[in-house]
Structure formats: C-alpha cells, structure tokens
Amino acid sequence: MEKFIYIMKGMARYILYLILGNRRFRAFDSFPFNPNQPMPEWAPQIMAKCCEALEKNNIRYRLADGTILGLYRQGGFIVHDNDIDVDILDFQNIKLLQASMKRLGMRLGRKAVYEKQVQQLAYYSKENVIFDMIFWYSNGDKICNYSEKGYKRTQPKKYFIDLDNIKYGGRPYPMPSHIEEWLVFRYGEDWQIPKTCKDDWKKECFDLNKIRGI
Q: From CA 56, how far away is CA 27, in angstroms rounded?
C-alpha cells in the first residue's frame, strides 16, 4: 500500500512537470519508496558501478556533499544519509548518461531542469539506493546550479579543477580539490562535528542562496 501511494504521487508530479513545461524551472520526483530513509547496505556497490559508468563515458565528476563529507571525515557513509551525491561539470550529452544508467538497471526518481538545462538527475536501484547527480555549469571563475526551486547554488570553480582522490572500497574516487577548505565553504567551520540526524539539507548548505523568478 505504501509503495502504491508513492507511485501515485510520483505520477501526479510527472503530470504537473509536463503541464508546467514552459516554466523556467521544472522538476518532478517519482520514488516508489521513502527517499529519505537511510541508504541500504548495497550503497558502496551501487556507487562503484555508477561511477565506473561515468568514467567509461569520460564524464568529469566528483563525489560531493554528504557522501564525501562522510568518506573524508569518518571513512564511510554517514549513518543517516539517504543518497550518494555526485557533482558533474559542464556536461551536455544527457541522453548518453541516461542510456548508461538504464543499462545498469537504474531508474529515474528525480529530474530538475532550469532554462532548458538539466540541473539534477537522481536514479535509484532495485535495492532502493539513490544515486543523485547534480549538474554544475561554469560562469567565469564560478560554477552554478539551479536544482532546487527558488534557490541558486554557487561555488568557486577552483574546487573542480585538479581534483584530488579518496580511496574507498579498494578504488579511488575524485573529490573536490582543497578538500578541507571546500568542506568549510560547503558546511561551515563545524564540518568535523557529526550530526545525530539528517535535517533539511538547505539548512547546512552554505553555497545556497534564495533567488526570485523561479
């Protein structure tokens, strides 16, 4: 019954997404489960195979947000985190990426578009592991993203140049350069102090600013 409710809500959101397609910002969510639940134990395997697909397609990416915070700070995923966070820079061949995810058996759970540019694609596996990709676009020495209605994310581009690596599960993953400086920029000076539960991500996203018009 719970799964049926999530499916019906997802269908309703998709219909609104199509109806409101002429707006500057469009988004829909369609997860047949509670997307805020902690990640299942299969998360490391899903992350490895999805990141391998990105690498095979020469897609420039980095682990980001709660994923890299957990791996760098404590060597593993944050217990209450609910998805795998990946940033992608200046990528346009969305159909290629979608085809790669489909071949892996991943299903689309969220899509956000701003000014006809994809800002976010979140896929989920049969084990309900969410692989969340945020798309950033260069603007001079900064990169920008509009994946949340009414907000703009902005970061210095230097954190996406000459990426560093972190090892997890026996393989390296790219992460932001100047990692501790980036963590302060993203989470604040207290990034080293673990939280006891997951709150609204916008409350601890210091690169996020409200904007009008979307």
A: 28
